[in-house]
Amino acid sequence: MTPTPEHPTLLTRLRGPATFLALLAAALLLLPQLLEPFRLNLLAQYLCYAIVALGIALAWGRGGMLTLGHGVYFGLGAYAMAMHLTLAATAADPLTNGQLPQFMTWSGLTELPWFWKPFTHPATAILAALLVPAAVATLLGWSVFRQRVRGAYFALLNQALAAAFVILLIGQQHLTGGSNGLTNFPVFAGQSLYTPTAQTTLYTLTVLVLAATYLLFRHITHSRYGKLLIAIRDGEDRVRYLGYNPTWAKTLAYALSATAAGAGGALFVPVMGIISPSLIGVIPSIMMVLAVAIGGRYSLAGAAAGAVIMNAAQTTFSETFAGGWTYLQGALFVIVIALAPHGLAGLTRTATTALRHRRTTPAPPQETATAGSTP
């Protein structure tokens, strides 16, 4: 039987898993040996944003939900982990005698707020970093999708949510650290976070979480539910007329996307060592979407690669052109959107298809001269 797109060869079917395993092996075994600790820590930060990008690709690329407020869910996961790390640092600090974080003491508090107390346990912080963003996204999604809010209106609603969240964090300085955020996290689970071994462990954990999230979302996108999401994206009213309820389908995708953002935020805090409102507001939320657009919102791998490429470019260009990075960033976005509307992943797919077609197309037969023909 001749191989077709519907019946690919065994080599074609194994190409994707082999590439995934090769990249995973390189990330886990090769890069920690090649990169110095500072660069490895930077790469771990980029991979945290790549986890967020996978969630955006699921919600936006598959479900058609333009999420311009994912900084909220990233921030919820980050602050959940930062609260635990702050309490752990306070307990290990002889200056505080294990009583209150310094910013609370400066704000006049004499007792630890009630909602901070459960975060003395790391398990609580991990669960909160995943469940709180999922719960908020479920509540918001169900409320707006049942009213058939979509498109630009949904995007603006997300953006307003991000702005309100930042205002709340800054206004409650005695509870959240205000505009300075939470920082100085020396220990986690009794282990120092400042050693090279700890940084390598955090990098490895980030890689594994990214790989697990990719495999989960890839399974979802190739399932019947994933096909339903595409149908809703391309024609929600038609899906509704066929008897399906798009509300819960979109809400589930939005909640899974928020959970991925929360996981990325929870990993970002011990890797970066700080979380503040400036990292999770409207502009960072838009930057997350731009990274997915550059990589390709219809491709999970492209979205993750776009997040890594964009953040790496920001670091590289800002080191060289400190004052002109924003202009280069805008030019990069315009060039990619103009030349590759489906992102770098779409451009790569087009080039690969053209190359494969060129290889499989037989060459035209050469004309032979006949008697009496003009040379």
From TrEMBL:
Give the residue spans that cross the bilayer.
12-31, 43-60, 72-92, 123-145, 152-171, 200-217, 248-268, 274-293, 324-348
Membrane topology designation: Multi-pass membrane protein
Question: Which Pfam families does this UniProt record tie to the protein?
Answer: BPD_transp_2
Tell me which UniProt keywords the record has, alphabetically. Cell membrane, Membrane, Transmembrane, Transmembrane helix
Is Acyltransferase tagged as a keyword?
no
Q: Which domain of life does this protein belong to?
A: Bacteria
Q: In which compartments does the protein localize? A: Cell membrane
Q: What is this protein called?
A: Urea ABC transporter permease subunit UrtC
Q: Which organism is it from?
A: Nocardiopsis codii
- Record gene name: urtC
